[in-house]
Write a structure and sequence with these properties.
Blueprint (H helix, E strand, L loop, with lengths): L13 H13 L4 H12 L2 H20 L7 H17 L1
This protein binds zinc ion.
Length: 89
């Protein structure tokens, strides 16, 4: 006997989205996965705001250039400097 609950439409769990976001922003995500991710973002606010955070973080890091952001500490320092700058406005 088939369990009707196992026939739910395919749903990508949030944890998988988080793992795909970097590739998505780099444009290296295959089409099928990109579509699944965008579909998930359409009705998942948590992942949408996570994507926006990642996009913003990468924008800040990109403005500094990859050589200036050798590690996580450097990135966090840049992020704090950016926040401090915005606080002055
Ligand atoms: Zn999600």
């Amino acid at each position: 006997m088939k369990n009707p609950f196992r026939r739910a439409p395919r749903h990508v769990p949030c944890i998988e989205i988080v793992e795909l976001v970097t590739d998505y922003l780099e444009g290296t995500l295959p089409d099928a996965e990109r579509r699944a991710l965008e579909h998930h973002l359409g009705d998942c606010e948590d992942c949408s705001s996570y994507l926006e955070q990642m996009r913003e973080t990468r924008r800040i890091a990109g403005a500094l250039g990859p050589e200036d952001v050798p590690d996580h500490d450097g990135l966090m320092a840049a992020f704090r400097a950016y926040q401090a700058e915005r606080a002055d406005e």
